[in-house]
C-alpha cells in the first residue's frame, strides 16, 4: 500500500487531534520519506480544508484521519452528577461547568466526508467506529485509499467486510483515544505484536501497527509480526513541528523527569483514552460516566482554562506507554531513526 503511494519509509506519523498534527508535521514526515496524517477530529470542515490546502503547498502525498460516528449517549443523571463534582473541585478555574448542557454531535462527519469527496486526498483513515459502507465506497471511487483503525480481530473482520483497503491495528499501549468500536466496555490490555499476528492470520488486508512504538526494535518487531508499516504518535509530540501546546509539553517533560506512568481513563471525554497520570485523573477517573462526546464537551472549557494557565495537572496529557522516548529532535530525524 505504501509503495503504491511512493512512500519509502515504513514509519507513518499517526494522526493526533487537538493540536499536534499540524501541516508542518505532515510535510516533515513526507520529506523524511514517510507519510503524515492530518487529524480532522474537533475541527470544522473549513478548518480541515485550510490544513489540507497548507499541506498541498508542499506535497500531494498525505492522509486525513476522521472520527467516524459511533455515539455513546450519556445518561443524563450521571452527566449531572459528574458536572457537579467537576464544578466543586475545579471551581478555581472560574468555568461555569453547571451551565454546560449535554451535547451529542458527530464531529461534523457529513461535512468532512463531503469535503473529502469534493476534493479527494490520497489516504483517509477512520477511527472510533465503522462508517456506512456507502461512505467507504464513495471515498474509494474517488481513488482514495481507505484505512480503518481496529483494536481486535473481530473489528478487523467487520472492517474488511465493509470494504476498506487496509487496517491500522492499534494496541492498548497507544496514546490518546482507543479506537475501540465498543467504548462502553473496558478495553483489554493487548500486546501489539500479538494482535498484529492474530489479525494477519485472520484478515488478508495490509496492516499498519500502532501503539507504544518507541525505538527501532519495536518497528522491527511489528514488521516481523506482519505489519507493512508502523504509525507513531507519542514519540513525535515533543518535535518542533508538532502543535503540542506549551502546557502539554511541560506536562510531558514533567512526566519524563518523574518517571510518571500512563493510564487509560474516561475522565476527560467519556471514552477510554491513554494519558500521563495527573491530578485530574486521580480525582475524577472513578467518577466519570461513559458518554462520548458529551463528557468531552463538558470538560473541554475546564481543560482550555487549565491549559491557558499552564496547569498540566488538569489537562489531558494524551500519551502512549513509550512516551518517555520522545525527544525534541525534528520529526524527520525521529522517523528516520525509528526506520533504521
Ligand atoms: C495526542 C494524541 C492525539 C491523538 N489523536 C488521534 C486522532 O485524532 N485520530 C486517531 O485515529 N488517533 C489518534 N491518536 C492515536 C494515534 O493516531 C496513534 O494510534 C497512537 O499515537 C499510537 O500510539 P503511540 O502514541 O504509542 O505511538 C492520538 C494520539 C495522541 C497521543
TrEMBL record:
Keyword Transferase tagged: no
Question: Which reactions is this enzyme annotated as catalysing?
Answer: 3 propionate 3-nitronate + 3 O2 + H2O = 3 3-oxopropanoate + 2 nitrate + nitrite + H2O2 + 3 H(+)
Alphabetical keyword list: Detoxification, Flavoprotein, FMN, Monooxygenase, Oxidoreductase
Q: What SUPFAM superfamilies does this protein map onto?
A: Inosine monophosphate dehydrogenase (IMPDH) (SSF51412)
The record ties this protein, via InterPro entries, to: Aldolase_TIM (IPR013785), NMO (IPR004136)
Q: Which cofactor does it need?
A: FMN
Q: What protein name applies here? A: Propionate 3-nitronate monooxygenase
